[in-house]
Amino acid sequence: MKLIRTFNSQTWSLSIAGCVLIAAVQTSTAQAPTPVTQPAWDTSAALGLTVTRGNSDTLLFTGNILTGKKWDQNELAFGADATYGENNSVKNAESLRGFGQYNRLFTERLYGYMRLEALHDSIADIEYRLTLSPGVGYYFIKNETTRLSGEAGPGFIYEKQGDNSRGYVTLRLAERFDHKLNDRAKIWQSVEILPQVDNFSNYIVNSELGVETSLTKKLSLRTYVQDTYDNEPAPGREKNDLKLVAAMAYKF
To answer: Would you say residue 6 has pLDDT above 80?
Structure first.
């Protein structure tokens, strides 16, 4: 009987110790902080180059880089593109453009934004054009494959065009459409209208239409058309500038 009591006492001790150990492990697991995954930047760069020699002697270089990040109620995007061209050693294209935009989502579809854009185009005789525009945007369509948004707000342009430097207040009306056709291809389109508030005959329209097709997981073919219409260009310059670009893009 004494042996049985001792055995029972040891069994109860082991059971109690096991329960304490399990409870301690569960408590430690519950209190361990969950690692926070930081949202990654989605970045890609594209490069296009055309060279001819012989009866024609031309060089055309195009390049652009796009990056963006989304977290919580925030959306951030930056982009830059450059073009340089020569025909028989005479420069016929030289432009540099960059933009940055921050969106703050108020609801799933409604957001406020701040956008800054800069442009240099020596052929159009634009030494610089800086555009600052806050406003409100709305996603009319927002899902995994399709996004359609509209934006509106005031803006301010400061530029040196030809020999004149000036600044003026504008309105900004913009629209953008993105759609994934499948896992390998997507298309996009955008339009931006910037009329001067006190002189509606002075306005700028920027538009873009493009398609991108994946060749590998990292490499893709990017083809797009950019058009800029300036109703009051520099003296001796055309109102419309059209650019067709085909480039290889790499996703980082």
So the answer is: no
C-alpha span between 59 and 85 (Å, rounded): 5
8 Å CB contact between 176 and 152 = no
Query: Please, are residues 204 and 228 in contact by the beta-carbon 8 Å criterion?
Result: yes
72: left (phi over 0), alpha (psi -120 to 50) or beta: left
- CATH assignment of 42-251? 2.40.160.40
Model pTM above 0.85: no
By CB atoms closer than 10 A (0-12, 13-18, 19+), residue 249 is buried
Domain range list for the chain: 1-32, 42-251
Per-residue pLDDT of 204-251, as tens digits, reads 999 999 999 999 999 999 999 999 999 999 999 999 999 999 999 999
